Amino acid sequence: MPDQDTITNQLELLHTHRRTLHQLLKQEAQIGEAFIPPALANGIADARDEIARLKADLRRWDVRVEDEPADAVEETALLVVQPVARSAHPLARSPALWIVIGVVLTLLISGGVALVSRYRGVEPSAITTPGPTTAPTIAASAIPTAASAPTFLTRYPLNVEALDQVELAPQPGVSTAMPITDTLRVTQVEFGSFAETEQPAWNIRLAFTNTRDQPVVLDLDQRFFTLVDDQGRTAELVYFCCPAKGELLGPGQSRAIQLFYRSPEEWFGKGTAASRIFIRVTGLLPIARAAWSFPALATAR
Predict the structure, then answer these.
(1) Quick one: how far is CA 106 from the chain centroid?
(2) Which of 50, 169, 184, 232 is surrounded by the most beta carbons within 10 Å?
(3) Which of 237, 215, 269, 53 is nearest to 145 (CA)?
(4) Phi and psi of 166, rounded to 5°?
(5) Of 197, 207, 204, which is closest to residue 226 (Cα–Cα)?
(6) Which residue, among 215, 22, 228, has the nearest Cα to 131 in the 3D structure?
């Protein structure tokens, strides 16, 4: 028999999974069961599996746990219909009418799919469904994500704890259950070069955490991120990992982000023209704008 702390933790975990399940079922109801994305369907199934496991464990420990209607898929009784004799049914004698019905159904289904596709495509950032969002102010990068990461040779790692966070503006009207400062963190900044070309480069890593109290549907790519100096020069993005579209990120869960930038020559060496370099993020909900800065590397080549 486990101790009381373990039982309490399991009960709290059960409550968390039920809350997540309720949010997912709301999303399913608004999208329509026939058109839900696989990630949403899998999220519902996973939540129900965890709820069933937790209830079984608690009941095995003689803890009273009530069932809730949403915990499992409802059993639906089969409706048995007696077949109608072909000669007795008026539609059976009208093949042309069946053709018309088929065309109408095809048009209705096509219209429904187009409507759902438009609904699911309007959200430009990491979002919850439903809910209005604001489009990011940074245009999508023309640089495609590389098929595989380039080989990066580190020359100088920066202390990320010493980075200056010079901007953090939440998106108006978007609330979070955790501090907004936990949403996005810079976890690594390195100056070096690509082994294949020996071109100077920057390796930037961040962690995005869902600080809201419900799952979010990710629409994550490179368009939210830029690396720029105090003179307006922008580094060229050559690699982003990893794009995510339609995947669910639960409350408190995190997603790692990696970016490789080709460095302008003015950012390092004896001829350094820049004073500071900025990592900027724009429109990645619930963040409207965020920026960190660090000094350019005025060192010998």
Answers:
(1) 33
(2) 184
(3) 237
(4) -95, -10
(5) 204
(6) 215
Q: DSSP letter string over 4-67?
A: HHHHHHHHHHHHHHHHHHHHHHHHHHHH-GGG--HHHHHHHHHHHHHHHHHHHHHHHTT-----
**Is 145 in contact with 221 (CB distance < 8 Å)?**
yes
pLDDT by position in tens, the chain (length 301)? 678 888 888 888 888 888 888 888 887 777 765 566 777 777 888 889 889 988 998 898 888 888 988 888 754 333 333 333 444 455 444 556 666 666 666 666 655 544 444 444 444 444 444 444 443 333 333 444 445 788 999 999 999 998 999 999 999 988 899 999 999 999 999 999 999 888 999 999 999 999 999 999 999 999 999 999 998 899 999 999 989 988 899 999 999 999 999 999 888 877 678 889 999 999 999 999 999 999 888 754 4
Q: Which residues contact 130 (CB under 8 A, 6 or more apart)?
A: 27, 30
Q: Which residues pair with 241 in a beta bridge?
A: 258
Q: Kindly state the tokens that stand for 42.
A: 């899998």
pTM beyond cutoff 0.90: no
